[in-house]
Amino acid sequence: MSEQNVIASLLDDLTQMQSLKTALCIGQDIAQYDLNKKIQWQYFNASDILNLPFTQRYDLGFVVFNDDLNRRSQLERGQIIVKLRDLWAKHVVVIAPQGDDAFMRSLGLTRIVDDALQDSQQTLWQFNILSYKNTPDWLNSKFWANPENWNKFRW
Length: 155
Fold this sequence. Notes:
Layout: H1 2-17, E1 22-26, E2 40-44, H2 46-51, E3 58-64, H3 67-71, H4 74-88, E4 89-97, H5 101-106, E5 110-112, E6 122-128
Parallel strand pairs: 1-2, 1-3, 3-4
Antiparallel strand pairs: 4-6, 5-6
InterPro entries: DUF6231
Pfam families: DUF6231 (PF19742)
């Protein structure tokens, strides 16, 4: 029951932060937790997502590790999340078992700190391309090819 409340509040928070119109879910159909009913949901199981050709990019991808996903090898689970992260969705949220911390970090996901899921032995992870990596100060035109400085300074 607490998982349902966490999913509903997470979806509410995500829709307030950014405009979400389309979303897909893998593992469990969570369209019922969208209380505002503003998001157009599509549900896929793990086998479908691995074999589907790319047709459109979604605003949100939601993965819930259920029995079907937990039975799959770590390679297949990684392929599902990577395909979702790189191709299908702008923002990815994953509900995974607690023992998968190193695996989730290796896929570029960051942990969402939430006390509500501690009782259920699951953790929340996310990947948002907009906040994945901040641009460092040195990566700008000031420090790179400046034709006006050629033949003035010796490196």
